[in-house]
């Protein structure tokens, strides 16, 4: 386990010291979480490495339907609010940018060939056709310690005929809860996902994922998450998730 | 919940009676399970509806690496065995075919537009580029009530740098345990997935998923699943899964 984590950390080590990465990871706007393990969004943290500006998938595109746009506007309008004096200031919510890969120049796992490494893409952002797969945007409310994600499920995510695959739902839950845990606790790994499926999600529909901090105990961060229809009337899934903070000194000692 | 399940069942109803579908679902070679809900592989069950033979993704292609091929051959060689008299007969294992969509002519969910419906693809088979995403083949051993799946994770499944996304792992677990539950109990829906992540999976590597029947209680089928490295030396995840048999009469009464 320690060795596996060590391999994952190589990507960071080639980019800078662990301490600076840990600092970056505590800044939500420059970090992401996937597979529960959370990593710095390097394209944000190190923009000078890139010749052109990467696409931010969290911004609206023509494939977004009316429900997706309505919920996006609902949260986005609360990212910046106007004071009584007419001045603009930060609101309670903040939109998190999203890209299609993590560490472009990381060495990756020990089994990762150079060819695979050069082509690797973030699972949730690997389809080029807008609207075909995962269309989603994540917002964080630091004061209330919660996250909200608006998710429109494309036609390439089919499981049961006309409905979203349970694995695609689990993918979004892992993404949202992992991001939330990162924001709260710094670098983490998913230790457990316990998902109760209550009702299937129609393909092409927009749903809302909301995550909440349950508690923190030492290295453990407990997050719960529910997926509902866009108007909140139907419960699709309920989840508890456990994340473990990555203990770098523990890793370095190889224990 | 009942109404949602009813929508999903429409796809079957337009193709034939429920009783014939249930019969087909008890024949593993013609059934699949996705999102835990299990459906007949219509392209197998009703070949006359299709003008050309669909691609069976469970057969080897040029992207399969040596470990993928080794494990494939290991199980495939046990699908047909030779008797002492030199005759060939069915072995303990059976390979399950796999396609990129379920019910081509199903009506799908109520929110499903005709455009989405015509383009819908099974989540795990939606990438055309061989080796880029989910390469897997499922085998079933009916006598020992277990399933084995050989899975090679492509470069489009990235989560942590150089490693597989937790959602992609959950997707494969849902697929394998759901298929297994179907074979054992007929049409089912996933009610719960409880996944413990032990160590990350390097991108590009081949792993083995094995599922086992824990118990059956009324409508409930309990399956456990472990994901290990291809040689079995490393444990990646441990999962318990609960599936509920779909009660058609219950659905029809709208209760």
Q: Could you explain the architecture of this structure?
A:
The structure is a homodimer of 255-residue chains. With 255 residues, chain A is α+β, with helices and mostly antiparallel strands. In chain A, 26% of the residues lie in helices and 30% in strands. Chain A has helices at 2-13, 18-25, 42-45, 66-76, 114-119, 166-185, 248-252; strands at 31-34, 37-40, 80-82, 88-90, 94-96, 134-141, 146-153, 188-197, 206-217, 220-229, 235-245. In chain A, the strands form 3 sheets. In chain A, strands 5-6-7-9-10-11-8 form a 7-stranded antiparallel beta sheet. The longest helix of chain A has 20 residues, at 166-185. The radius of gyration of chain A is 18 Å and the shape is globular. The first copy, chain A, starts with a helix and ends with a helix. Residues 9-51, 103-110 and 250-255 of chain A have low confidence and may be disordered. Chains A and B meet through helix 1, helix 5, helix 6 and strand 8 of A and helix 1, helix 5, helix 6 and strand 8 of B.
Mean pLDDT rating of chain A: 78
Computed CA radius of gyration of chain A, to the nearest angstrom = 18 Å
Structural class of chain A: alpha+beta
Strand content of chain A: 25-35%
Q: Oligomeric state of the chains?
A: homodimer
Uncertain residue segments of chain A: 9-51, 103-110, 250-255
* Total of DSSP H or I helical runs spanning 4+ residues of chain A: 7
Helix content of chain A: 25-40%
Cα(first) to Cα(last) distance of chain A is 9 Å
